[in-house]
């Protein structure tokens, strides 16, 4: 009974956090009228990773509650992507991204080996997205408009998803993904806070 209650709590807390996960980041960008410090490459890779992961869960008919947050995060990421393109004056690229993601969504399930291979690569893609953001932070030594709250909430949802995956599907590929993401999300959060502190002491 206790395990069932914890599982339900993990699902619900993940959905609640994910429904607002990008709002601090969106608010920071809108308030500043700038996407300084944010890596476009990181966001595009993150979006690609989320799309593959969502498609994989749907394809294998996993329980809806184990991935319900993904459509919500994807929608928020799309808005953030449009804001970055808008503030950097590259709105023309939006159509190209839309066509690429739409095409990818359909291509993924043409063959079973494609979705399995994509899921294996998904962890690498998502890890690359976090590393791209870290590189951007190291390069500028300035956390700019990057939201530590958004990244720490991402770390929390990875932790809850490790628990729910063990309790439900026990899919090793999914587990490896969440453990890797948890470590990298904590690393990015710590880096943002470090540069923010350094700026205050300056």
TrEMBL record:
Membrane topology (UniProt): Multi-pass membrane protein
* Segments crossing the lipid bilayer: 12-31, 38-58, 70-87, 94-114, 174-193
Q: Which branch of life, at top level?
A: Eukaryota
UniProt name for this protein: PQLC3 protein
Q: What PANTHER family does this protein's entry cite?
A: MANNOSE-P-DOLICHOL UTILIZATION DEFECT 1 LEC35 -RELATED, SOLUTE CARRIER FAMILY 66 MEMBER 3
Which Pfam families does this entry report, sorted A to Z? PQ-loop (PF04193)
Q: Which gene encodes it?
A: Pqlc3
Where does this one sit in the cell?
Membrane
Which Gene Ontology terms of cellular component type are present? membrane
Kindly give the InterPro entries that the UniProt entry links to this protein: MannP-dilichol_defect-1, PQ-loop_rpt
């Amino acid at each position: 009974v206790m395990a069932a209650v914890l599982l339900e709590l993990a699902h619900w807390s993940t959905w609640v956090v994910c429904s607002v996960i990008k709002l601090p980041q969106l608010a920071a960008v809108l308030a500043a009228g700038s996407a300084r410090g944010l890596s476009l490459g990181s966001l595009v890779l993150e979006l690609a990773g989320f799309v593959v992961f969502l498609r994989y869960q749907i394809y294998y008919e996993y329980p809806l509650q184990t991935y319900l947050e993904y459509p919500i995060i994807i929608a928020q990421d799309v808005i953030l992507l449009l804001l970055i393109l808008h503030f950097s004056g590259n709105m023309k690229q939006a159509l190209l991204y839309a066509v690429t993601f739409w095409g990818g969504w359909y291509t993924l399930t043409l063959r079973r080996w494609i979705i399995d291979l994509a899921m294996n690569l998904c962890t690498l893609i998502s890890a690359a997205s976090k590393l791209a953001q870290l590189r951007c932070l190291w390069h500028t030594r300035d956390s700019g408009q990057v939201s530590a709250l958004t990244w720490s909430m991402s770390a929390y949802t990875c932790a809850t998803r490790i628990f729910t995956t063990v309790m439900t599907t026990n899919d090793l590929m999914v587990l490896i993904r969440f453990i890797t993401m948890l470590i990298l999300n904590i690393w990015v959060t710590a880096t943002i806070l470090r540069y923010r502190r350094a700026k205050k002491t300056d």
